[in-house]
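User: quick one, fold this
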Amino acid sequence: MKIALLFPGQGSQSESFFEENNEHFFRFAEKTYHDFFKAHRSLEPYSLQASIVIQSLAIYYRLLPFLKKHTLMFCGHSLGELSAASILNGWSKHDSIALAAYREYLMRSVSEETDLMIALLGNLDREAIEAACNPESSHGPWIINDNSPTQCVVGGNRETLSIFNAPNFGIKKSIPLKTTGLSHCSRMSSIVDMFKEKLATYSWRSELEHSLLSTTDLKQIECGMDLKNELCIQLTNQVRFREAITHLEEVYQPDCYIEIGPGQVLSNLVSKMYPNARCYSSHQHHLRDKIYEEVFHG
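Assistant:
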């Protein structure tokens, strides 16, 4: 069976994940997370992205005995590519947490108080939205994430984003997002070199056990150094999740999708794009039971 694994970003943050997963396996992951920040107090304010990564890793390794019997394709949304990189390169949980915390620290360092990210929902006029954006500006607006035909995320400061209050974009609803700062835009260019230096201290496998489909340029990544470059390139480029899923459907043709992380944001996006696709989330015990029954033992 061909399975596409979807690793989510900040849109899937959850405060109740470990409360909903009481078995020892997840408690150990939670302890690893808290022990790290007790030992690294200076990084504690930058723990949100690390929380999402450790939750994704915990779910993946919980499902691994079943997953390894199947053909896998990885696909990460923003921070999700870091979660995938951790697995594909065999990093320790502590190293993965440290890298996520450093990524968050860098992003916050170049974000401003007036910055905002907004999800636009509706029958979107993408040409009009793209025309209204200014990719080279230091204040936006920018398209941050192209998530589905009916959803995209824009970012910038509040003043530049006010352009989307006009009625000519097909927007039915706009939702301000809770994030750790801006991402995937030209503002991030000043932190790319620092992130590269950090990535240089990590190990990168010459050949990855599974491929990752880039949500930046839609290329299939099969070696560690290409994945290292992807984590840098994505900082300044929009997440093309809509196109990535279309590519998976047309080229890879997975038998099902499993979201590996807290929440079900990505699996819901795929379900809306392709109603006949088999999509599963795995952040709660009863949802994993459904995967065991319908996918692994079906």
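User: anything notable?
Assistant: The domain at 2-109+185-296 is CATH 3.40.366.10 (Malonyl-Coenzyme A Acyl Carrier Protein; domain 2).
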